[in-house]
Structure formats: structure tokens, C-alpha cells
Write a structure and sequence with these properties.
Pfam families: YvrJ
Radius of gyration: 18 Å
InterPro entries: YvrJ
Number of strands: 0
Shape: rod-shaped
Strand content: under 5%
Protein name: YvrJ family protein
Largest sheet: none
Amino acid sequence: MAEWMQWIQELGFPIFVSFYLMHRVETKLVAIHDALITLKLS
């Protein structure tokens, strides 16, 4: 059981950072998409 806890602790932080960065990139991609749609309609 201790081996599993150590494995989760080692992998938990990088996974959290990855999800955080993906969320930030996703919001920026949505903003870019909306801007391109607005330009296309103008």
C-alpha cells in the first residue's frame, strides 16, 4: 500500500500541472476561435 501512495504522490503533481495548463490553453483557443469567426462574419 505504501508503494501505491508513493506512486500517486509522484504522479499526482505532474498530472495536476498538465490539466491546469491544458485548461488555460483551451480557454485561449476558444477566444481565438471566436475572434476568427467574428472576422469571417465581418
